[in-house]
Amino acid sequence: MFNDITPIPLQAYLLISSLLFCIGVWGLINSRNAVRVLMSIELMLNAVNINLMSFSSYIDGNLIRGQVFTVFVITVAAAEAAVGLAILISLYRNRTTIDMESFNLLKW
Amino acid sequence: MNIASSAQQICFVILGSVVILGALGVVLLNNIVYSAFLLGGVFMGVAGLYLLLNASFVAAAQILVYVGAVNVLILFAIMLVNKKEKLKEIQGLKVRKFLSGLVCTGLLLLLLRVDFTTQWISPGPEAIGEMATERIGEHLFTDYLLPFEVASVLLLMAMIGAIVLARRDVLTSDVGTGDSVDQNLIEKSNEPILLDQSTK
Is residue B22 within 8 Å of B46, Cβ to Cβ? Predict the structure, then answer.
């Protein structure tokens, strides 16, 4: 597992990315501040990016298609953050709070 | 085990712990401003991991887009909405946190099982170094041309959408003629329209 060609095993990257993803999921469910929910989504996107990058480097040889996917994910994440924060500011104007528990207009 | 691979391993351990501890801080700290700055640290750590994976272009893009744009945007949003408010107590919040923690731990165990039991066909990382940027450019303009163009349309849509959602001041009369202007879709009144009436 540890040799000079691959000093870091692929599983180590996968471990980091799994941990980051689960922290993101937990934060997404439990945050009451709406900004923190958006930050948790960014954490999850970064976990997926680490996954794509490590597979691209370890398994895809010199085609590195995973890196292209990562560039696309970064693009979509930037768009998502912009729209998400705009929605958040709009919500704050209408309800004067950012507590997720008070955004229950569509709750049955 | 030569000195280069030990250096890589040490860098990996440092970057990995920065990423994980920073992410825990983002989720668990009470002060949202600390969380935002720690999020910047997490993004930097992830960029360092990309450098360890021989991907200098994506690491640079990560720092430019995430630290330079997304994190600054989040800080601005915090500045706009940061009001010290006393969150009202919710019944069973502790139970909810505990249960979701259990679910997330289960998810983590499942992911780790997949990670460590699968026999990945691993030729190992190929050191293509600076060729990586060239290769990404080739991909973007040959087999990934359509997603590349669609991404530009998506960014334009996101920009217009963000402006429409977040704008506040709407001119009700035309500046030139003085006539009233019909702005059905984007017009918003300045007072909160969805305020809970029952609390008043």
Answer: no
B63 and chain A: CB distance < 8 Å anywhere?
no
Reported for B2-7, long-range contacts at CB under 8 A and 24+ positions apart, including other chains, are B2/A4, B4/A7, B5/A2, B5/A4, B5/A7, B6/A7
- pLDDT (tens digit, 9 = 90+) per residue, B133-167? 899 999 999 999 999 999 999 999 999 999 988 87
Tokens 């949003």 belong to B77
- Does residue B107 sit at the A interface (CB-CB below 8 Å)? yes
Give the right CATH number for B9-81 from 3.10.150.10, 1.20.120.1200, 2.60.40.3500, 1.10.1740.10. Answer: 1.20.120.1200
Q: For the whole model, what pTM was predicted?
A: 0.86
To test the contact with chain B by mutation, choose from A3, A30, A104 the residue with the greatest count of B C-beta atoms within 10 A, namely A30
Domain ranges of chain B: 9-81, 144-188
